[in-house]
Amino acid sequence: MDLKNKVVLVTGSTHGIGAAMAVAFAQAGAKLLLNGRSESLSDELVEQLNQEKADYHYLKADLMKTDLKKFAEDAWDSYGQIDVLVNNAGINRDKLFIGMKEADFDSVINLDLKVPFFLSKWIIKKMNKQRSGVIINMSSIVGMHGNSGQANYAAAKAGLIGLTKTLAREGAMRSIRVNAIAPGMIDTEMTQKLSDRVKENILEQIPLGRLGKASEVAQTAIFLAQNDYLTGQTVVVDGGMTI
Ligand code: NAD
Questions:
Q1: What is the Cβ-side half-sphere exposure of residue 211, based on CA atoms within 13 angstroms?
Q2: Tell me, what's the pLDDT at 92?
Q3: pLDDT of residue 194
Q4: Does any ligand 1 atom lie closer than 6 A to the CB of residue 206?
Q5: What residues are labeled active site?
Q6: How confident is the model at residue 193 (pLDDT cuts 50, 70, 90)?
Q7: 129 C-alpha vs ligand 1 centroid, how far in Å?
Q8: Mean pLDDT within 147-157
Q9: Tell me, which fold does domain 7-234 have in CATH?
Q10: How far apart are the first and last CA of the chain?
């Protein structure tokens, strides 16, 4: 897919990996539908988008509290099409399993799995008529291998991989491709809140010896959107952590 003038919706794109994706898709010539909970995008992101002369709309919405059907329809109507949906918004609420509360489970499952499920449902309905489209789900190596203290997050991210493979099978006949990205440890707010001791421990497990950059994950999303023969795959971007 040539991304020039294609419309890309990235959820949770105010900062971190989502913001890096916004910039990368803008550089590829795409029009952007950006989403977050804050009133507006940060000055820094706006400056980066302006540098790329990006055409974009900002859709303010807390996806845990929003009517996702209406959100999807409003997003679609912004440009009259959506070619790429990136289900990126995600949270973690880490605790050892024995102390994990129902609320910790529900909030992570809701944003990291249920929101992609329903957003994909409403967008795919429209993509079916368009007879083309790409969905990229932000999973994690934790969804493939598990991780102490992340039972809720691992369940949600593993669920996304199953969802990805199923939607890839169902969407193929209408040229809708669905893939996932499984990052390792990427340097964003999500990982900046980890203690130095935990970070040092993780660094020892990464053969490339550093955390990944949000832009390196964003480049993977561009590759997945552009390559018309890729579907149902989960691409690991982890500096070799899970070799
Ligand atoms: P981040 O915390 O820096 O950004 C998360 C984004 O989601 C933000 O833009 C935030 O505003 C948005 N968001 C959170 N709650 C929302 C809500 N209710 N409604 C709408 N938007 C909401 O995290 P990140 O590191 O950029 O992570 C992006 C995605 O990548 C997530 O799905 C995360 O699970 C996944 N991931 C990240 C890492 C990592 O190491 N950083 C590793 C594996 C997977």
A1: 18
A2: 96
A3: 87
A4: no
A5: 153
A6: confident
A7: 30
A8: 97
A9: Rossmann fold (3.40.50)
A10: 30
